[in-house]
């Protein structure tokens, strides 16, 4: 069970060594997490592994993310004890890769490009004359349909093929019953 002091040391070590973490070549950071585990173990006489330290830190990041979603009103978010306890420390998002000058230039250019695209794609609102023209067209369409021959409008019901075939079957059955039951009253509904 992690204590508050152990978690704070884990967070501090990860924050202080963030540049080292992101400068490790390859994808394996096992030695990084083993070093942090050794520091915690020496300080508190514990025996955490690098894998446990990595997992605990990932859970802290997850709890922070859930808290952010919760505060934003997102249904996926939720309030957690560790998210509340360490929220301020994680607010700076210190675990993310720091931006280099190249990243900063890229971000500026990308946002400028997106802003330019949005500006070009904007359509100006219609003028007063355009609105009046649209309204008069709608009125003429409405007037034209009310003056049309009502019999041409599709509001009369057309019987389905099922109903027609069922009626034919009933007529066939009725004629068979009448011929089979000579002198017996037919009780089929008409």
UniProtKB/TrEMBL annotation:
InterPro entries named among the record's database cross-references: SANT/Myb
PROSITE patterns with a match to the protein in the record: MYB_LIKE
Residues of the Myb-like domain: 1-61
Lineage top rank: taxon: Eukaryota
Biased composition (Basic and acidic residues): 136-152
Transmembrane stretches, start-end: none
Name under which the protein is recorded: 18180_t:CDS:1
Species, as recorded: Gigaspora margarita
